[in-house]
Amino acid sequence: MNAINRHCIFVGAPVQVGASQPGCLMGPDALRTAGICEAIAALGYKVSDAGNVTFTPRDLPRHPNPAIHDLEAVSGWIEALAERAHEKAREGVPVFLGGDHSLSAGTIAGVARAARDEGRPLYVLWLDAHPDVHTLDTTSSGNLHGTPLAYLTGEAGFKDWYPPLEVAVDPSKVCLLGLRSVDRDESAKLIARHFTVHDMRSVDEHGIVSLVRNFAERAVADNGWLHISLDVDFLDPEVAPAVGTTVPGGATVREAHLIMELLHECGAVRSLDLVELNPFLDVRGRTAKLLVDLTSSLFGKTILDRKTRSY
């Protein structure tokens, strides 16, 4: 493993304007308080904390969809995060501490540019109860944390509102895992654009191992840069209550740790989002602590040493 892969850079993204409930702006500090920097340093990585990103709202005309709120702020966040992500992804493995899921429109846009700089395709594993492929025209809630994947994969309707997208993500290189709440418009789009989609029924039928391993092996075979975007609501709310979009029937603690261990073993992970942590809704910090533990598993922490699979 080279020096870049052994350098973990934490970047705070205190975004909450893309969601309906306040509290996500406290996410980065909650993760730091829960010891995320110390946990990764204990695994032998060089660790840097780049602090929190700041933004300037973009000057935009009013969007014709009256449900949309805070568009100027979200667009400003995307612009700022894309620049910081591009910068930090060239220095190490950035871990973006959120913050609602609208932040991924910026972080993934930035790491897509960094992957292109290395001549590598970007693969995205989207661990979420929701697909977040609404456009500005189709969102009925107006909550822009439901739009990042549509923007990142080049859907129409963002040109005059979100920052110009320098590198679009190929939908066929995006795997959505753990879906439990999908709107009709989103369902049609997922099928038409050839995303790899696994809802919780797929998980129950086929098991986590084969689904994650198959996608990871595709990324490895393609010399891909693998980005993980982990939404708290991917997890079952019984084990991770600190999220404003709870959907029953999510991943267990054991399943989530297994996913992270498998991803570490594949060796292709180069960036990570931790999103939708709302400490205001947490119970004695249990969700923040769980995210720290899962991040540790992604960076190689195990109960017992096991032989790495050969590819």
Question: If you had to describe this structure to a student in words, what would you say it looks like?
Answer:
The structure is a single chain. The chain has 311 residues and is an alpha/beta fold. The protein has one domain: 3-Layer(aba) Sandwich (Arginase, Chain A), CATH 3.40.800. Helices cover 35% and strands 16% of the residues. An 8-stranded parallel sheet has the order 2-1-3-8-7-4-5-6, with helices on both faces. Helix 5 (148-152) links the parallel strand 4 (122-127) and strand 5. Helix 3 runs parallel beside helix 4 (104-117).
**Helicity level:** 25-40%
The fraction of residues in strands falls at: 15-25%
Order of helices and strands: EHHEHEHEHEHEHHEHEH
**Main beta sheet: strand number and arrangement?**
8 strands, parallel
How large is the radius of gyration? 18 Å
Label the overall shape.
globular
Strand order of the largest sheet: 2-1-3-8-7-4-5-6
**What structural category do the secondary elements indicate?**
alpha/beta
Q: How many helices does DSSP assign? A: 10
Number of domains: 1
CATH class: Alpha Beta
The CATH superfamily title = Ureohydrolase domain
Low-confidence stretches: none
Gap between N and C termini? 16 Å
Calculate the mean pLDDT score and round it: 95
CATH topology: Arginase, Chain A
Query: Could you tell me the number of beta strands?
Result: 8
CATH architecture name: 3-Layer(aba) Sandwich
Layout of helices and strands:
Layout: E1 7-13, H1 27-33, H2 36-41, E2 46-52, H3 71-89, E3 93-98, H4 104-117, E4 122-127, H5 148-152, E5 174-179, H6 184-192, E6 196-199, H7 200-206, H8 208-221, E7 225-231, H9 253-266, E8 269-275, H10 286-298
Parallel strand pairs: 1-2, 1-3, 3-8, 4-5, 4-7, 5-6, 7-8
